[in-house]
UniProtKB/TrEMBL annotation:
Residues 41-116 form the Cytochrome b5 heme-binding domain. Residues 1-19 form the signal peptide. The keyword Signal applies. GO terms for cellular component: membrane. SMART domains: Cyt-b5. It comes from Momordica charantia (Bitter gourd). Belongs to the cytochrome b5 family. GO terms for molecular function: heme binding; metal ion binding. Keywords: Heme, Iron, Metal-binding, Signal. InterPro entries: Cyt_B5-like_heme/steroid-bd, Cyt_B5-like_heme/steroid_sf, Cyt_B5_heme-BS, Cytochrome_b5. This is Cytochrome B5-like protein isoform X1.
Length: 117
């Protein structure tokens, strides 16, 4: 009888371990991408974006997407250049030669929605 009990306990432990492997994500980036994909996108008008034109409240538009970069203004390597298009379309400046490819990944963290066309 104890032999059967040991097999049952071993099967239960093995089942719990396999279940944990399936339920626990291995790559946190995968989970982050899934959360972003499930986040509903808000739509803003150009007028709504235009009022966010200060150092402490800075939104920009890049390719019809709206980004709240308020928390990034002081860290911007180009200094106050980011404020040139605060509350406005910054697409042309964003795609200038001064930006490396890393900026394309970083900016996505600041995306808050789409521009209403």
């Amino acid at each position: 009888m104890s032999y059967i009990m040991m097999i049952i306990v071993a099967a239960l432990i093995l089942g719990v371990c396999l279940g944990a492997l399936v339920l626990v994500p291995r790559d946190r980036n995968v989970q982050k991408v899934q959360l972003k994909a499930n986040k509903p996108s808000k739509v803003y008008s150009k007028a709504e974006v235009s009022v966010h034109n200060k150092r402490t409240d800075c939104w920009i538009i890049i390719k019809n997407k709206v980004y709240d970069v308020s928390s990034y203004v002081d860290e911007h390597p180009g200094g106050d250049a980011i404020l040139t298009h605060a509350g406005d379309d910054a697409t042309e400046g964003f795609y200038g030669p001064q930006h490396g490819t890393r900026v394309f990944d970083v900016v996505e963290d600041f995306c808050i929605g789409d521009l209403r066309l």
